Predict the 3D structure of the following.
Amino acid sequence: MKKVLAFIIGLAVLVPMAMARDINPVVDVSWLAANQGNSRLVIMDMRKVEDYKAGHIPGAVDVIGASVYVKNGTINNEVPAADDLTDTLQAAGINADSLVVVVESDSGRFTWATRVGWTLKYAGLENVAILDGGYAAWTKAGQAVQTDPVVAKQGNFVVHFVPTDFADKAYVLSATNDQIVDTRNYDTYFGITKQGFVAQAGHFPGAWPLPNNWILNSDGLVKSAADLEAIATKLGLDKNVETITYCDSGVFASTWWWVFSEMLGWPQVRLFDGSSQVLAADPSVKYVTETWR
């Protein structure tokens, strides 16, 4: 009996370890420089092709953003089909056990870096990170760059979407007991300004306002997990309640999704892909303006 109990306890310990990350969700320049020799490392450079050609982190693979967030009919920035995304990630040299670091140009592109990060996590990759400060932080630190393009060895990762990371309109409309978090700025949340592709000004009734730019310090680097947890807690959010993030088209929403799910370890966090572009187009949904929640 004691051996059986020991075996069960052993399994309980091993399962969390198997699910644990091998890389932090946000890495700095020092970490990336120190780990460039790691055979599992894949650096995805998401900048414009001309910027990549002018100089990039040694070993970084050029990945076109439009292959990771695509237009689906009239809806912007959607997840590609599983087979198309598989082709993109395999061409970048990604395997199931890869340590993937997403690199954007600078902190101004943090939202796009997390959108790529969320897509990879939704696709089933466990070890995905964002380079804090992007390529600008790398060059500011005086790190070496290269101009020769990198041709990756074909990877073997196959996309298997994780449904618990994703929400669509039907799910959001049925989620009456969930925390819905609006990650746009206050002017958009309150209906002072609006994107042209969004049908209604304001926000979904009951949504909590939590702007994505609160995540970064004045130097453009990501705040500590403790500081971000404090922001969410003071706002009144509960980490034990399923949380859905949304914005205009599903890009800004990825920032707080990344914080909640990856940095803070909240157990139930979904991103509403399509966000207000889809939701506000439904005449049965009435956004509210000049109103707190």
Summary: Residues 163-279 form a domain with the Oxidized Rhodanese; domain 1 fold (CATH 3.40.250.10).
